[in-house]
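S2.1 Query sequence (Troponin I, cardiac muscle)
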Amino acid sequence: MLQIAATELEKEEGRRESEKQNYLSEHCPPLHLPSSMSEVQELCKQLHAKIDAAEEEKYDMEVRVQKSTKELEDMNQKLFDLRGKFKRPPLRRVRMSADAMLKALLGSKHKVCMDLRANLKQVKKEDTEKERDLRDVGDWRKNIEEKSGMEGRKKMFETES
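Output structure tokens follow.
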């Protein structure tokens, strides 16, 4: 089997070589080098013309390839749209209250309020004696004058006991 495969490989290489020679003989005529300066200039002009034609063809091919890739992308997008399969965007964490979460999940069925602060009773704070005293004091300068000196300190000790 190895001998048969080796002979097949040799035949294929010979066939490729003959195809290459045929292609070169068709598309690339044998090069003849001119002897005078005017002939060399003429040859250069011909070569430049062929290079320009090849560059134009290359540019046209690139434009065709770009156009076809854009059409392919558009077709793929239409396919995804028709099938209903979309690329999912990366999800981010969102801080959401319990009410907002229930409303998003249940929609119009959501009737329970999870806002605990709204359900709390408000308790009115009673006025303490200290707060009443502070309100009754009035002018702060008067209070300081009363406490200044020895008499004021004596009063402070008398009121505490």
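The CA atoms of residues 126 and 136 lie 16 Å apart. The chain is about 70% helix and 0% strand.
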